[in-house]
Automatic annotation (TrEMBL):
Name this protein carries in UniProt: ArsR family transcriptional regulator
Family annotation (CDD domains): HTH_ARSR (cd00090)
Keyword Transcription: yes
Keyword Cell membrane belongs to the record: no
Domain HTH arsR-type intervals: 6-97
InterPro entries reported for this sequence: ArsR-like_HTH, HTH_ArsR_DNA-bd_dom, HTH_MetalResp_TranReg, WH-like_DNA-bd_sf, WH_DNA-bd_sf
Recorded superkingdom: Bacteria
Assigned keywords, A-Z: DNA-binding, Transcription, Transcription regulation
Lineage: Bacteria, Pseudomonadati, Acidobacteriota, Terriglobia, Terriglobales
GO molecular function: DNA binding; DNA-binding transcription factor activity
Pfam families, per database record: HTH_20
């Protein structure tokens, strides 16, 4: 049976997450994904943000590489979701400081 316990992060992983969330626009995107009742698509986010598709793509890539979001591709759509396990582990690690 697989463990569901959040992983311990290295300082490199903590830095990557902090850097990803350090950009105000990226943090706003992260908040919108986290607050969504259903998995938003890139198109849904583009409708509500004053940025180009290329800029959104860049920000999503940074959030995904930091492990904060998951991107599920279905045809031409990309559904976005918060990786709650990563977020919980990050907050737990921060609380130890």
């Amino acid at each position: 049976m697989a463990s569901t316990r959040p992983p311990e992060f290295t300082s490199e992983q903590m830095t990557r997450i902090a850097k990803a969330l350090g950009d105000p626009r990226r943090f706003e995107i992260f908040q919108r994904i986290a607050a969504a009742r259903q998995q938003p698509t890139c198109g849904c986010l583009l409708e509500t943000l004053p940025i180009s598709a290329a800029t959104l793509s860049h920000h999503l890539k940074e959030l995904e590489q930091a492990g904060l979001i998951a991107v599920e591709r279905e045809g031409k759509f990309a559904h976005l979701s918060l990786r709650r396990d990563t977020w919980a582990a990050y907050l737990k690690q921060l609380s130890k400081i």
